[in-house]
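Look over this entry.
=====
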Amino acid sequence: MANHKASLQNLFRALPSKTSLAPLLYASTEQSSDALYFGRVGVPDPFIALGLRGKKYAVVSALEFGRVKKTSDFDVVLPLETYLNRARDLWPQRRPGPAEVICLLAKDFRQHRFTVPADFPAGLYDQLFELGLDLAIADGALFPDREIKSPAEAAAIREGNRLSALGFAAAEKILRSSKISGRSLKHRGQVVTSESLKFAIEVAILEAGGVSSNTIVAGGVQGCDPHERGSGPIRPHELIVVDIFPRVTTTGYHGDMTRTFLRGRASDAQRGIVAAVRAAQLAALKMIRAGVNGRAVHLKCVEIFAALGYETKSTPKGSVGFFHGTGHGLGLAVHEPPRMSPTIDYPLRQDSVVTVEPGLYYPGIGGCRIEDVVQVTAGAPKMLSRYHYDWELR
């Protein structure tokens, strides 16, 4: 990812040249999607990045200096070693690190107030405070414009979902060709497991230019816990929730899709919850457009489920029914603004990208979630994901 200048610098729109605040980050791009968004270059170790008077600055070590200078969207790239040497001279009693370097930058640029993200390192925040800097924690997103996706960003997310679809195809191929043997599924003489399906999914995505981490393949009762990754044998005649959210290697953007499968013959109860989830998803998709409140979209799904007799409640063993949000933003992070949930009133913005993923979860029947990705428009949403909805594999 680090060497793809066309993908990270030129492919996407430039950030606004000026902001009302001076942003300050200290993180790797693996840890911080804000850092990747700001500089459009992958840096695996934490580094200093700041915005001042319409320009973007990075301070990196000699290991990264040439590459970041050539391939990033930073206007100015400064050598870390120069600042560390200055810090040693100025504070001989201290072991210089990022706090001292940031303090010198603040002095050089006569800028002593910065805005930092909510996940800014607490220890560094405390050190900078002791050194006299005024740091404000961003109220919400550090870069609110991240929510609005350009055509090229939407295309990058669509590519992420193409990778997700390849993962589904790999898992479905194994499930369709597996043989039912009592309480097991066997493929080429081996028992089909969550682990073996995840391996097939992740290999298919890796070969196509992405990385799929923490893939969910959860069958039976495991599928009733939405974030259970799944383990052990996949059973015939049980619902299998498959949630794939790969990162495209060249751009850093994600896909995020979920399908529910079953190898064998479904019960009427299983068919009922799958039909209800798809009905709720279609109703949500019909509502989504710029200006519509995300909470209203979520409540439409709740209304559909209630009308079909699917109750949501808490039990001593956990919640059942529909107990998560209908969707979330997607981009350089798998979960980012906006949200479509029961607790957040938030009008959807033109060109934002959201997942649409209602689900129902009942131990004894199983779990079902169906997830697609759309870009919000003034009219019908633009689909950024595609895979069929045939789920009962006989």
